[in-house]
Amino acid sequence: MSRIKSTFASLKANNKKALIPYITAGDPHPNFTVEMMHAMVASGADMIELGVPFSDPMADGPVIQRASERALAHKVGLRKVLALVQEFRVNDDNTPVILMGYANPIEAMGIAQFAANAKAVGVDGVLTVDYPPEESEAVIAELGKHDIDSIFLLSPTTEAKRIDLVVKQATGFLYYVSLKGVTGAANLDVEEVKGRVAAIRKQTHLPVGVGFGVKDAATAKSVAAFADAVVVGSRTVLTIEQSSEEDLIANISALIQELRTAID
């Protein structure tokens, strides 16, 4: 059983929901990434979504775009991200790590090589924004050889027929994008999202996580009432951006603790 699947099973058995914070690897500096990952787990994160810096992050709003720019300024690419995961695994062999990014770095490394490298360092899932399900057979197959889950996005505009295609290919969990637009774009309509998640559940037994619009503890609590996981990205990255190096770990820990308390 994969770490993602076992984590969801354990949480369900304890009537809890997953908290999945996102950070961009290498932001604000690669020296802080692993320490932040450990701090988030200690503060209540169940899984970590680790962004792979990219020069043209089309699904991301200004906050995460700036994080990518800061990381790229420190020469953090896919190989460095994998090295950071490997460093994290030295002291944490239990927390699932999901890489989120874009196809170009994977294609540059080679799909087969990427999958093998990701497995070797302890990656559990991969979410690639611009691999549409119709063109994902090769990457899904390679990741599957190494028991790495393929995570897919669903949006408010995804039709039932396309949802059916996605759920046949996805493993681990489904990530419902609660807003039309990029990360951190607007305030979400919780009741509308609840209805969409209910409709998705009719087509799959996979857990459903919700993200792209969870900006505070109150929203996290509302989403956790019906979703299996709450994904928090722009809010986490904004906290990093607004923190000094001296108070970075304390601030990110406090945010995760606040979200954990609200979700529980």
Polypeptide structure, described:
Strands 1-2-3-4-5-6-7-8 form an eight-stranded parallel barrel, surrounded by nine helices. The longest helix is centred in the last third of the chain and has 16 residues, at 248-263. Helix 7 links the parallel strand 4 (125-128) and strand 5. The protein contains twelve helices and eight strands. It has helices at 3-13, 30-43, 62-73, 78-89, 103-109, 111-121, 137-145, 160-169, 190-201, 217-224, 234-241, 248-263; strands at residues 18-24, 48-51, 97-101, 125-128, 149-154, 174-177, 208-211, 229-232. It is an alpha/beta fold and 264 residues long. It is globular. Helix 5 crosses helix 6. The chain has one domain (3-263): TIM Barrel (Alpha-Beta Barrel). Residues 181-185 have low confidence and may be disordered.
**What is the N-to-C succession of helices and strands?**
HEHEHHEHHEHEHEHEHEHH
Structural Rg? 17 Å
Helix content: 40-55%
Average pLDDT figure: 93
* Number of individual domains: 1
